[in-house]
Amino acid sequence: MKKILELTAFAILISISLCAAQQNVRIKDVAALSGVEEVQIFGYGLVVGLDGTGDRTQTVFTTQTVRNMLKNLGIELPDNQMMLRNVAAVMVTGTLTPFKRKGTHLDVTVSSLGDATSLEGGTLILTPLQGPDGMVFASAQGPMSTGGYDVRDYGLARTKKNHVMVGRIPDGGIVQREYELNVLDGRDLALSLFSPDFTSAVTLAKAVNAAFPGYTDPIARALDASTIALDYSVVARDSVKNKRNLMDFISTVENVTFDMQSAAKVVMNERTGTIVAGGNVRISEIAVTHGGIKIEITNEPEVVEPKPFTNGVTGIVPNADIVTEEKDMNMVVLPKTTTVGDLASALNSLGVAPRDVISIFQAIKEAGALQAQLVLM
Asked: Which of 188, 179, 108 is nearest to 141 (CA)?
């Protein structure tokens, strides 16, 4: 019954993917403006206020960082008096999204760098965040949320929930410098597909041109499988029909819907038994058979007692029993242009487990009957 329920869920998943494949998608969901990029930022800092769960003395860089910080504040301490248990060295990371202005906030993630046991309840002190070029773009500070706990009782007992070595500070970062390369001037506008595909690029360009009727020159042109050039000057130079500025033009373009095309793929994870297939996967005419032999070896040992008034000892004699069970071999013939949903239903009728379905898909691919790319995770 469990196998049938799992395969039924698999068939339902395929049906959902078939329905989703027939719907249009917005351009903003599958593409982005070229040249408008995110910036990953990072920094080295300290988390204070921990309840004895911070870095130990063998983490030298934590002690050095605290010593340098106190020295800048006019406080000097001997090295042998630095016993830190409530401080942890951390790396702070974040993402500066396009057009984030100076003074706005962003979320940051704090991760332990030393041998601290927990960052629960800690507070990040002011940490500058730099980009790949070394320029400081933001700073972060504030109390963290780890979303869990790690309670230890002198090493004898331990209760843990979630991962407490990484915390998050919502709106904990403040933008100090804007990324100057993200500039929109109406020139060299282009869309970049997240998943490059020639058919999708051509279809997207046609959909954009259809959204701006009445113009002699095309507004969108597919340059390759990923890039679609946008010519805003065609709209801007027409003083009669132009009722959109640059922002209105971009907003209209990114909300245009079109039929997204993609290569047929079947993605399988053999470790978890997960199978995900797109709605455009087709299978040629095949015959599928499923069967197996189950061999179970059981051991029920017998205790043998020695005879009375002898020097014998009690012994254990193994009593192995072998049970062999062979399932009936069934065969299902599927017609040409069979969908993955039809195959799932057929395998469901045979009582095939999800992990066996993976092996069957691999065999179908080897037979040349699967018109899709097989991806194993």
From this structure: 108
List b or e across 74-103, with b for residues whose CB sees 16 or more CB atoms inside 10 angstroms: eeeeeeeeeebebbbbbebbbebeeebeee
Top pLDDT among 83 and 27 is at: 27
Is residue 126 within 8 Å of 139, Cβ to Cβ?
yes
What is the mean predicted confidence (pLDDT) over 169-198? 83
Q: Model-level pTM? A: 0.64
Q: How far apart are CA 247 and CA 375, in angstroms?
A: 40
Mean pLDDT of the chain, nearest integer: 77
CA-based radius of gyration for the chain: 32
